[in-house]
Amino acid sequence: MNLLLAYSALLLLAVLVSNLANRTILSTAALFLLAGFVLGDGVSGLIPLTPGDPVVATLAELALFAVLFTDGMRVGWTDLRHAWRLPGRALGWGLPLTLIITALTAHYLVGLGWIESLLIGAILAPTDPVFAAALVGNERVPPRLRQLLNVESGVNDGLALPFVMVFLAIAAGSADLHLGELALELGLGVLIGVAVPWAAIMLERTRWFSASHHYEPLNAVAIGLLVLALGKATHGNLFLAAFSAGITVATFGERQRESFEQFGELVAELLKLAALLVFGVLISPALLASVGWQGWLFAILALVLARPLAIWLSFLRSGLGTREVAAVMWFGPKGFASVVYALIVLNSAITAAEQVFTLVAVTIVLSILLHSSTDVVVARWFDDERETPAWHHTVRRVRAKLRGGRETGDPA
């Protein structure tokens, strides 16, 4: 009851301050995370949750399913073909390089084993589009930069997932026995994610079926629920099924995609905020104190070294300007997908589960606080009016009048 009450009150507060958050460093994600921390057992004890509580795993599962489904809908195959050059660098080079550099840092700085270090690298490699929203939605930001960040953040959650699952299986000591089963689970998830939406969309195109305008947004909802149910019934991987289903809908059902877009984003946002609240509850002062200076240094380096270095190497001779590359380097925030992957690890049987979760947790906390409070600032970096102050235009007009004409480039 306390969890529902807290979530409801925070959701109302987030709605009331959302306009302010879009213009300032205030972040609704940080609001839910910090509220969870204060309400958890480690501080006030108003929401007594433990990692083993069923609500933690269920909420994380549903939220990540919804997020991956909507992420997939942003990037149909047509979109990827038309805008693959720059996002391809970020995903094909930046993602694995970020994973490797993060893993090297975890191994040599913290002393984790190689598999656990690679697992942390895979968990922290994806980026979250929420914290780059001010850039993606700002028309003064170059379109290719906005498209790059949007496509990358929409795809990398799904691309990192198989690595997380494989490294987690190896860390659990099931490399010989269960990797074949894992491959079957992943493949079955992709098959369900492609087959169910394709069949549903083709069925609606026949002369016997047609969705009304009122029910059209529910079409994709029904597809998503059916994919979720079949994934659970067949033990296919739910998350790859969700991501594949989103891409399939975007590729073959443009009408379904458009009708679901706004509704789907809201559903995913509701679940994401709830998961962030639960994640905050699980982060106690004792957990933060147990990290040690190596853990905090790792978290800092994961944000200011791993992603920036990987992106800098990936975009050499790409044609992007210095400011654009700098923005992509900085906006590699660790957000919701990393939260859920960390919760999956925490509920696993691996020996280093708690240590992995702790390192990932402090990295995500720092990322949410730093990236969500700087997106508006970085977006203003591309504001032409801020690059060229008003007094500069005034001086140019005065000079032009003294010369008897208007200088080229002077605004009317």
TrEMBL record:
Bilayer disposition of the protein: Multi-pass membrane protein
Name of a matching Pfam family: Na_H_Exchanger
Domain of life of the source: Bacteria
Subcellular localization, as worded in the UniProt entry: Cell membrane
Signal sequence segment: none
InterPro entries associated with the record: Cation/H_exchanger_TM, Na+/solute_symporter_sf
Domain Cation/H+ exchanger transmembrane: 12-374
Membrane-spanning segments: 29-47, 54-70, 90-110, 117-138, 158-175, 182-201, 221-249, 270-289, 295-316, 328-350, 356-378
Family annotation (Gene3D superfamilies): 1.20.1530.20
Keywords: Antiport, Cell membrane, Ion transport, Membrane, Transmembrane, Transmembrane helix, Transport
Coiled coil stretches, renumbered: none
PANTHER family: CNH1P, NA(+)/H(+) ANTIPORTER 1
Protein name (database record): Cation:proton antiporter
Source species: Streptosporangium longisporum
